[in-house]
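step=encode ok
step=design start
structure_in=
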């Protein structure tokens, strides 16, 4: 029996304008083709503005104990370092990210890995809590900022060029997806809380990045 079923796809976060895109079709072979074509279009649009992100599944993350969502876009980004050994390969970085999550869950009792994203010396971006989720990286600012941590100790050395570029690409991605505002403010962790993070050497470098704020909020 032929059924004239109507379906609708709504996307709100593909482009910075956050416009809604509607597609309506009769449930038919042609409608299915249109559905697939539109899905591929959205995937292509996402890929064109964002770098590759190693997902939680890909680095074998443990399930979070709690998840709290925040209203986005956010207008603040906080840069940290993990104050751990550095990593140069995906396998090394994956192991470190797993260790950080274990510590944050089992010792610090943060409910999950604290950072939104982590940047490895291999140039890869590792999904922490991800977009539009309440973090646990900068007390007092966790619900209104994206926390990005470079894996390593950067008090006296800089992250690799690949890592630095990956962070910049991630920020551009966040703006394009509407996860962070066009006029977001960038801070080092030590500007907001009592910490040495992101390390003196890295802090001196991010001061030259666009959106960096010399004055604390």
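sequence_out=
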């Amino acid at each position: 029996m032929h059924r004239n079923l109507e379906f609708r796809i709504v996307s709100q976060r593909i482009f910075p304008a956050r416009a809604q895109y509607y597609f309506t079709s009769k449930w038919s072979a042609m409608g299915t083709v249109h559905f697939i074509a539109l899905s591929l279009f959205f995937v292509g649009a996402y890929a064109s503005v964002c770098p590759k992100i190693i997902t939680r599944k890909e680095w074998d993350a443990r399930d979070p104990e709690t998840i709290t969502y925040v209203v986005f876009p956010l207008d603040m980004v906080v840069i940290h370092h993990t104050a751990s050994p550095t990593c140069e390969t995906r396998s090394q970085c994956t192991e470190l990210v797993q260790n950080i999550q274990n510590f944050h869950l089992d010792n610090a009792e943060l409910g999950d890995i604290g950072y939104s994203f982590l940047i490895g010396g291999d140039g890869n971006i590792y999904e922490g809590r991800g977009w539009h989720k309440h973090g646990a990286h900068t007390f007092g600012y966790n619900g209104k900022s994206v926390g990005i941590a470079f894996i390593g100790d950067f008090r006296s050395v800089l992250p690799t060029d690949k890592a630095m570029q990956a962070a910049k690409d991630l920020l551009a991605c966040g703006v394009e997806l509407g996860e962070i505002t066009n006029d977001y403010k960038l801070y080092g962790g030590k500007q907001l809380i009592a910490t040495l993070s992101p390390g003196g050497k890295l802090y001196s470098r991010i001061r030259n990045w666009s959106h960096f704020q010399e004055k604390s909020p």
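step=design ok
step=annotate ok -> The two ends are 63 Å apart (CA to CA).
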